[in-house]
Every structure is written in structure tokens, then in C-alpha cells.
């Protein structure tokens, strides 16, 4: 029976060095291999010309460079792309490229589905299938770079920023995400700066503390509500880790960075749920001691969610209140809507292990007529 080959695509620098040592090789070879794999996109050991024939032969026996498979790719008129990527568990996840003036942001998935069940999130409604391996996470960046190379040079595209805001909760798949993020920031791989790689979390407090030991990437916090009562209703993990503990952990992380970085506070605006003026005032008070910028995200509807996006005037009022309190506030423009690539619309094709999706579908039928609350 053939033994499982080690997939070198998903090895962090220290893991690559350790792997080479098991083959009796010196650690500096790690950098050579990583450059071939991540910078040149080479998967065939025979093409790695500065690696000795002897080592290549050994690698062919026990290792491979195996990116995940692309099942489909969609292009939106606004320049966004969405790839459907098949992972080993049999599920598929989504990766989205969002071009903006002077930068190109790739939104990467960390899990197939998500176990945290936020009430407004299509991924959460699907239930959870699997954690992505490190090679499946970094593989999304690898695949997109390869795709852009083959698209040609007419409209050159480049990934300059990565946000871990695709499917899944990154901190629930901690080691693989930390390894993948280290590869994104490694000079011999993708060389993205710490300010251009952002980990978005709904608030897994112990893991936010642990991040200090592994990374100095930027942090985004999916807050979405200004008090525990409302947050627990829409972001259930808040029951375990309430807002005060959460903000303390984020402050500690920012302090550990020792630079001028601030957290991005993500706040979805859902009509009649969390978009009242009073919510904005409460939020301004709550964030008084957290260095941050606030990113308001108009809710992206999906079938059967039962929620509506806030009106333009509610969004603008909410923003003004925060700005008057001295906050820097941006409103996320919805991109990639027509190809289902907007925030919270990513669903891939997840074989749900929790059966939540079945319960959800049944519920959706029952509640098809339920209208969201109205706020004057
Ligand atoms: N699990 C992580 C990262 C993935 S979700 C997190 O929750 O932060 C990425 C972002 O999309 C989060 O801010 C999330 O709250 C937001 N999002 C989820 N569903 C959405 C929807 N229907 N409309 C707009 N944004 C949504
Ligand atoms: Fe999971 Fe994030 Fe969606 Fe919540 S918003 S269900 S944490 S992916």
C-alpha cells in the first residue's frame, strides 16, 4: 500500500525545515523549496533546478505539491472573481478576489461551513463540515496567483491583501490558519506585510490571546451588536465569551503588536435589529477604550434569512453618530453580489455534519412569511 506523501504546499517554514531534517537534509533547503512552490508555482520536483538530483529523487518518493482543485470560477461585472475550490473532505469552499484602486484583496476560507451559527450568515446556516488543512488555505492564494498568471497581462491582477473573511471561523481552525498566515507573510513565499493580512474573528477569546504567540497579522472583530443581550441573539458565541472579555482580549493583542495598529470592528447593519440610533450611541461608548476603525457592513440578504438590509438613511445616520463621536467609519460597498460573492453569501457546497442545514431548510419553509422588525 502506498504511504501518504507529505504535501509540501502546506508546510510552514519551521515544519518544512523539520521535514527536510528527517530526510537528512540541511534546513536552508527549506527556503529553496518554498520559493519554487509559492513564488514560482512549481509542483514538479524535476523543474526545481537548484535542488540536487539526489534530493529530488527522495522528494518524489515521499512528498508532493498538491494544491486543492478548482471546481468553478465566476467573474462579476465589477471585476470580482469567485472560485469554488474542492477540499479533501469532499465539500467545496469559496474564495473571492475584490479589486479596488491600488490593491487587490483576496477573501480566503478557513473551514467548510461553520459551527458558530450567527443568525445573519449563510455559511453558518449550512452547519459545519471540516477544518481546511493548511495546504487548502494557502492553496487558495496559490491557485489565484496561478490563475492570474494564466489570465495574461491585458489587465494585470495581483493579490496585495488577504482577509480571512471567507467561509468559516479562522480561530476555530487555529494551527492551520496560523501556519497559512505565516506563509502569506514569509518573504520567501508571498511576502505580504503584517498590515495587509487580516484575521477576522467572531470572538474566540482564548485563541485571540494565543494569537500573540504566533502572528502579528492585523485583526478584525465581528462585533455586530453594542450589548451582550443583542449580541448573544445574533452571534451565539457571545454567550460563552461576552463583549467585555472579548474587547479585553483584542486590546491585549493590539498591545502585543507594539505598533500603531488598530482593530477593524465589523458591524453588520440589519434593518430593525441592530441599526437604531441608540445602538450607534451605545457602540460609540463601548469602544471608547479600544483603538479601532469601524467598518459598517450593510447586510447581504440570502434566501430565507428573514432579515433585511438597513435603509440608506439608517446606514448614513448610524455612520454620522459614530463619526461625531470621533471614530473613523467606513461603509463596505457590496461587491460581487451578482455571483453570490458578497460577505456572508459564501456557501460552497458543504456536507453538513451537524444537520443544521436540514433544520434550517425546514425552518425556512415555516417562516417564509416572517417579516423583520420595523424601527422608525
Ligand atoms: N468567521 C469570521 C470570518 C468569516 S465571516 C467572522 O465571523 O468574522 C466574514 C464577515 O462577513 C464577518 O464580519 C461576518 O460577520 C460577515 N457576514 C456574515 N454574514 C453576512 C451577511 N449576510 N451580510 C454581510 N456580512 C456578513
Ligand atoms: Fe461563522 Fe463568521 Fe458566519 Fe458567524 S459570521 S457563522 S463565525 S463564518
Q: How are helices and strands ordered from N to C?
A: EHHHEEEEEEHEHEHEHEHHEHEHEH
From the 3D structure, determine the CATH topology of the largest domain. Answer: TIM Barrel
Low-confidence stretches: 360-376
Q: Could you say which overall geometry the principal axes of the C-alpha atoms support?
A: globular
Helix content: 25-40%
CATH superfamily of the largest domain: Aldolase class I
SS-based structural class?
alpha/beta
Strand content: 15-25%
CATH architecture of the largest domain: Alpha-Beta Barrel
CATH class of the largest domain: Alpha Beta
Q: Mean of the pLDDT scores?
A: 91
Distance between the termini: 68 Å
The set of bound ligands, ions and cofactors reads: S-adenosyl-L-homocysteine, iron/sulfur cluster
Number of helices: 12
What is the radius of gyration?
21 Å
Number of strands: 14
Largest sheet features: 10 strands, mixed
Going across the biggest sheet, name each strand in turn. Answer: 3-4-5-6-9-10-11-12-13-14
Description:
By secondary structure, the protein is an alpha/beta fold. 34% of the residues lie in helices and 18% in strands. The chain has helices at 13-22, 29-39, 53-62, 122-125, 134-151, 174-185, 205-211, 228-234, 243-257, 277-286, 312-324, 356-366; strands spanning 6-7, 63-64, 69-75, 81-86, 92-100, 103-107, 111-113, 128-131, 161-164, 197-201, 218-222, 263-269, 292-298, 329-331. The strands form 3 sheets. Strands 3-4-5-6-9-10-11-12-13-14 form a 10-stranded mixed sheet, covered by helices on one side. Helix 10 (277-286) links the parallel strand 12 and strand 13. It is globular, with a radius of gyration of 21 Å. The termini are far apart. Residues 360-376 have low confidence and may be disordered.
